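Troubleshooting: if your tokenizer reports a length mismatch, compare your output against this known-good record of 255 residues.
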Amino acid sequence: MLIAGLFVFISGCKSYNKVLKSPDNTLKYQTGMDLYESGNFRKALEFFDLLRTFYQGTEKGEKLTYYTANCYFQMKDYQLASYYFKQYQQMYPKGEHAEEASFLQAYCTFLDSPRPELDQTTTYTALSDLQSFIDRYPKSSKVEKATQLMTQLHKKLEDKAYRVALLYYKMGSYQAAITSFENLMNDYPDTDNKEMYLYYIAKTYFEYAQKSIPSKQKERFEKMIEAYNNIYYLYPDSKYLKELKPLNEKAKKQI
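Known-good structure output:
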């Protein structure tokens, strides 16, 4: 049984190779489409790559370009998928799949966005692509999904910025930590983490003041008290108040 299956496989490969070398582009096109429909995307690409230029500007060329992009998408090669979805939009801006290609190009870049601790250039590109899709197709049924994806990307960027701020704090780079936490609140005003950022600002100012020269301590203890008061009034049941309250009392005594 295994030998028979292997024979069919080898015979099939020889048959496909024969078609690939054939001058009959109609046969190549149909064979590629059959492979695509059967889910053999890698093999289908061999035929699509040969035919896209030949059929460029035609209905078949449009289909080949879109299917090429989708082959890479199904194979989870999101960089190449994004490239060909973009190429489809450029070559066939009024094509049947123009709206879907615009969304999928952005979606591929979203899927290619790395973990928060890594460089986020791709994340910014994905945000730009998603916004472009929304601007181009404001009535699309996919606008809601695109908006949700953008929210996820913004959270990733916030997470990245938080990690940087926390690193500054742990390194004892207090001014950089304070600036970073303040920027987080300014850049993400609707964040769910504002309470935590205020906590770190208060705690950082206290440690910063303690390690400052005498002429700078009063100002920094005052800033600590201000941050503490912000948490107290905004989050009266905050879990951080138990830790910060004795620090706040010490800061008051230093003024």
